[in-house]
Amino acid sequence: MTAPGRRETGTKAEIIALAHLEQQGLRHVASNYRCRMGEIDLIMQDGTVLVFAEVRYRNSTNFGSAAESVTPAKQQRIINTANHYLQSRHKRKPPPCRFDMIAIVGKELQDIQWLQDAFQIGGKY
């Protein structure tokens, strides 16, 4: 048996992240929203706040953390994609939003970190 491919591992990580967020009380809105600007892994509802979540997986932290792998350019693509989503679905009055990250580390995908407000429009914290 061969090791799972990147796509398969990424899909498993997204399923684990979704379950984790639902356990924390968030409601699933959409997965893998795509447009010409990019993709958003998970869109969740946290009370009145719409959450755009990026899921990152790393086998180990030898070459940096999962969170560190979301570059400013990747953040901007996520923001642009979120704007597209909002314009297509919430034209009149968009809800308050935030950008979260779910970082998963380890071969067994057991170490889960939920970073709320991981970045914001205009740059990283």
Automatic annotation (TrEMBL):
InterPro entries: Restrct_endonuc-II-like, tRNA_endonuc-like_dom_sf, UPF0102_YraN-like. Gene3D superfamilies: 3.40.1350.10. GO terms for molecular function: nucleic acid binding. It holds the Pfam family UPF0102. PANTHER family: UPF0102 PROTEIN YRAN (PTHR34039:SF1). NCBIfam families: PRK12497.1-3, YraN family protein. This is UPF0102 protein YraN. The lineage of its organism: unclassified sequences, metagenomes, ecological metagenomes.
